[in-house]
Amino acid sequence: MALDxxxxxxxxxxxxxxDDLSLAIGEGTMYGFLGANGAGKTTTFRMILGLLNPTEGxxxxxxxxxxxxxxxxxxxxxxxxxxxxxxxxxxxxxxLGKLRGMHRLDAKAAIREWLDRFEVPQYLNKKVEExxxxxxxxxxxxxxxxxKPELVILDEPFSGLDPVNxxxxxxxxxxxxxxxxxxxxxxHRMDHVEELCEQLSIVxxxxxxxxxxxxxxxxxxxxxxxxxxxxxxxxxxxTVPGVxxxxxxxxxxxxxxTEDDTAHRLLQEALKAGPVSHFSIEEPSLQDIxxxxxxxxxx
Amino acid sequence: MREFWIIFKQAFMxxxxxxxxxxxTAVAVxxxxxxxxxxxxxxxxxDGEKEGTAIPVVADNEAIVDRLGRQLAAMGEETEFEVxxxxxxxxxxxxxxxxxxxxxxxxxxxxxAIQAEYVSESTELFGFPMMLQEALQSIQTEMRAxxxxxxxxxxxxxFEPVVFEQTAVSSSGKTEEEMNQARILVxxxxxxxxxxxxxxxxxxxxxxxxxxxxxxxxxxxxxxSPVKHMFAKVLGIGTLGLGQMxxxxxxxxxxxxxxxxxxxxxxxxxxxxxxxxIPASTIIYAILFFxxxxxxxxxxxxxxxxxxxxxxxxxxxxxxxxxxxxxxFIIAATGLSNPDAAFVTYxxxxxxxAPLVMFLRVGLLDLPWWEPAFAxxxxxxxxxxxxxxxxxxxxxxxxxxGPSRSLKDLKKAMQLGKE
Lengths: 299, 419
Known about the structure:
The complex is a heterodimer. Chain A is an alpha/beta fold. Chain A has two domains: about 5-220, Rossmann fold, CATH 3.40.50.300; about 225-285, Alpha-Beta Plaits (2-Layer Sandwich), CATH 3.30.70. Chain A has helices at about 40-50, 90-100, 105-115, 135-145, 165-180, 190-195, 215-220, 260-275, 285-299, and strands spanning about 5-10, 15-25, 30-35, 55-60, 65, 75, 150-155, 180-185, 200-205, 205-215, 225-230, 245-250, 250-255, 275-280. Chain B has two domains: about 55-160, D-Maltodextrin-Binding Protein, domain 2; about 175-419, no CATH class. The longest helix of chain B has about 40 residues, at about 175-215.
């Protein structure tokens, strides 16, 4: 495995921010790191970057611990914008690129290429504070990716962006992955994770509660969604044995079930009420899983 | 090391290229040239005013008026008088309307003392009226001597000037004149050090706080260690500061040279100020104490800057630091007239005061070499300890966000830095 977190624990005094976390992330994969606010995501990232040392456990990149000798192979996008507000875009990116081991001319070429790709070449000589939030985020993404890092850590890369920009950044991240980089990213947006990540992990209060490939995670969740569309009243269906939960919309309902039999029972019951226009058994969304795992504890 | 120089260059260039810095420097240099030529400028204005304005005199004895003119000229004050027939009331009216600046009423009845009244727009205590009085006094003495029909040698004996010389005996072994020259030079340099240390340590703290609040710090310290970052920053801005001070120094030197080429008067003015022949050792000590003082305070400022999350909080956290420098300046300013005082001597060894107070002593007194060396050694040691301590706080401080505005956070930051 390229990035290995081996039973990593981080304590701040009495408080345990990360508790016995193990991750194994293969080279060239995109890894989703999910968790509610304060779950320990940023602390974990800081440990991976070497800004904090784990209280226990070990973190290695290709078998070696990460330190300032390897930092130019890493790209980092912090959760909040991290740019000099008063500095011009090009100057700033050259500075950050050089810090990551790039040469001035290479950095310049990369900056132009990236700005063109993000359709904002006109910002080359603008101060960062003059840019909109979405455009600042593009600059931030360039800062994280321009030096062709082997390991990319993205903390909430798509927060606060409009759908068009989200797609643009997503495709950039995918390309970087396709070029062989390993990407770890955190997000609150489950749909993004579902779309991008093969592997994922959900942490809650410092503890890992779900880990594995997207398919395994969904399968092991052991619940399916049964979607039924009908113009007739379906409220009675939630008493069918085996239904874990139900949610109703205007023209139908979604039921969470654990057994296929229950799904068939539901269809029969629904047909008793009236004609059904749609029936499907769907795998659970990540959102469902996240809420079930994390939300339950909140309750 | 590569990253160190990148940060160093960035800290230096981003400030050096900023408009604020360029304008401040340009204004200061212009100010230096203006100050150096101030006598020439004042002269230029003065001449225009003086020329052609004879002072009207109401006098019953015109001979005395002539003698007064000659006497004043001998004293170095060329003044024209014009005997007028106007009445006092008429002259007062003219004065009120601004047609004349002053007038003189002179009465010298035979055998009686000269009576003079000098009327002007405002009462001057020194300067011209005093000279006038002095001139009239000597005219009267001469007149009395004439009346007594003294022999020339008797008259000469009467007017023989006193031999007067001022000598100061102090442990500094410098004469009063040398002391005065040194005092002005030391004061100017002391002020420069004081000002620069405050300005640049503030710059450091603000810079660090800005990087932290804009979260660019997270990116920086993920590719360069916080300790390296801190020292690169301190050194970068320090170099900028030293460069600026040297620029001021050079332009000051050039200004004095060029102005003394224009008029001998300002050369006199500056040699009087002790700037004509600046002792090299004082300049070297000034640079040394500036550099050391800067590092001492800059490391502390960087440490404090790393504790705050918002730039607005910098001011409140840096106040204690500024107060220490102010106290140092007050001690030094008091010591200017009395550099031998015990409290000046003792405080000159305190590392936080030494940049100003020890510099004052070294500039004004003839100290044995080990005294400044000892203070410098103590400062270097303190800088080392602070650097070590500051690096630890900084390492944690830059990762700490939240409402941090008190020194209690020092401990928290140290803890985090160790993690």
